[in-house]
Amino acid sequence: MSKICVVGTGYVGLVTGTCFADLGNDVVCLDVNETRINNLNNGKMPIYEPGLEQVVSLNKKAGRLNFTTDYKLALDKADFAFIAVGTPSGVDGEADLQFVRSAAEAIAEIVNHPIVVVNKSTVPVGTGDWVADIIKKRRTVIGTPLEFSVVSNPEFLREGSALSDFMEPDRVVLGSTNREAANKVAQLYSTLRCPILVTDLRTAEMIKYASNAFLATRISFINEIANMCEEMGADVQEVAMGMGYDNRIGHAFLDAGLGWGGSCFPKDVKALAHMAVLHGTHPQLLQAVMDINRNQRRRVIYKLRKALGNLDEKVIGVLGLSFKPNTDDIREAPALEIIHLLENEGAIIRAYDPQAMESTSEVFKRVIMCENPYKVAEGADALVLATEWNEFKQIDLKRIYDLMREPIIMDGRNLWDPEKVISLGFKYFGVGRGAYPNGENNA
Ligand SMILES: NC(=O)c1ccc[n+]([C@@H]2O[C@H](COP(=O)([O-])OP(=O)(O)OC[C@H]3O[C@@H](n4cnc5c(N)ncnc54)[C@H](O)[C@@H]3O)[C@@H](O)[C@H]2O)c1
Q1: Percent share of the chain, pLDDT over 90
Q2: Residue positions annotated with a catalytic role
């Protein structure tokens, strides 16, 4: 059993801390956000993540998982300090490292025993060395050296399936200049029976960015093909299927739609491109990947205009607000950008999401939040499916048809069967469904 402090109790920190506690370690999760910690101490979850609440409660009861805002308490006798704070986009697309810096400084100020500092936040290549420098410099000022090592341990979990991603990872990546420290961190994962790749610090940091950029590239690639399919009369769903059966390609991340969003891909692709430019290379592919993604949202507005003409005072229903199903995270969600563009054109938005209406209301005050998809459809001139929550799969489309003013469906996730939608009388627009040019032809 190890004593672990996790600095930052957001999606990654909370899942990491909880899972390490579940594996039998003694974990303290720390955050500077008092409300978040008070809520966790009172059994209230700060995020929606399937299954997490039960595992948190179980491990709290067992005394293995604690929450605090007190750095001293959290770091007391800790063998490991995992840094899992946010690294949002800065003004120029660079990763803003202010939270990593303050976490590193706090560790340097407080700890007086040997410790392994583990970077779990997604950080630019070179940050591990930078963190080590910050700690060393602080200790020089304090006057007592600290025995510590920095290990990079990028996180690959996906919101919505974070627990199983942590417990059954495809791989664990560890980077360090100190092999012994990397091995100590490897021990924490040893019961998970997954490949553990040990590299140097910078390589580990790059693996995280390269992985996210590659996945984003696959999505932008299929979206570019989807746009061609729309013009050339092909069906991108079948194209992706046909491609995916090739073992060299595979099926994952070949779903055409409204593009990638969330707290990671947008900021990480931007940060990697920014790093590349700073180092004198030309990230042309990454730029194209970002451009395609931006256009994918704009195409929805274009298609709606094509179907409805001027969008001023048109009522548009939006189903799904979170950036993907099974999360309440709305950071860089396609739905939000689409709502923003529609509101700019004077449209009135009615929306529903199983988890993300409260947070969206804080950003978009004029959006009319509805208690279910049918309320969204009432009097709507078009319905945009933005997030493919399971509960939308079996929706009663006939009832939706009867409730709408204009039966126009913009299936941004290719969730529904176009033939069925068209047979009910809708004008159907999917993404890359050129084989069903019903909406496009009738618009
Ligand atoms: N969310 C994901 O799906 C995901 C997946 C893989 C990697 N990551 C990376 O993990 C990191 C964390 O992401 P997240 O989504 O969990 O962020 P988040 O915004 O949900 O949580 C970050 C938490 O850190 C806290 N914090 C900030 N400064 C602090 C400090 N000095 N001391 C203590 N707490 C502090 C904040 O209050 C917040 O609760 C990011 O670098 C992100 O890119 C995220």
Answers
A1: 97
A2: 264
Burial class, 441, CB count within 10 angstroms (exposed 0-12 / middle 13-18 / buried 19+): exposed
Q: Which atom of ligand 1 is nearest to the CA of 122?
A: 41
**pLDDT band, residue 437 (cuts 50/70/90):** confident
- For ligand 1, say whether the CB of 19 is within 6 Å of any of its atoms: no
Answer yes or no: are the C-beta atoms of 279 and 290 closer than 8 Å. Answer: no
Q: 212 CB under 6 A from ligand 1?
A: no
320 close to ligand 1 (CB < 6 Angstrom): no
The b/e string for 379-413 (b: 16+ C-beta within 10 A; e otherwise) is ebbbbbbbbbbeebeebebeebbebbeebbbbbbb
Consecutive H or E run containing 17:
helix 11-22
Listed residue (52, 66, 87, 53) closest to 3, CA to CA:
66
Q: What mean pLDDT is reported for the chain?
A: 96
Tens digits of residue pLDDT in 79-108: 999 999 999 999 999 999 999 999 999 999
Q: Atom of ligand 1 at shortest distance to CA of 120? A: 10
Q: Whose CA is nearest to atom 31 of ligand 1?
A: 103
Rounded to two decimals, the pTM is 0.94
CA of 304 to the centre of ligand 1 (A): 36
98: nearest Cα among 120, 127, 69, 136: 127
Q: Which domains does the chain have, with CATH numbers?
A: 3-199 (3.40.50.720), 215-442 (3.40.50.720)
DSSP per-residue string spanning 291-350: HHHHHHHHHHHHHHHHHHS--TT-EEEEE--SSSTT----TT-HHHHHHHHHHHTT-EEE
**CA–CA separation, 95 vs 321, rounded Å?**
25
**Span from the CA of 251 to the centroid of ligand 1 (angstroms):** 30
Q: Residue 442 pLDDT more than 70?
A: no
For ligand 1, whether the C-beta of 159 sits within 6 Å is yes
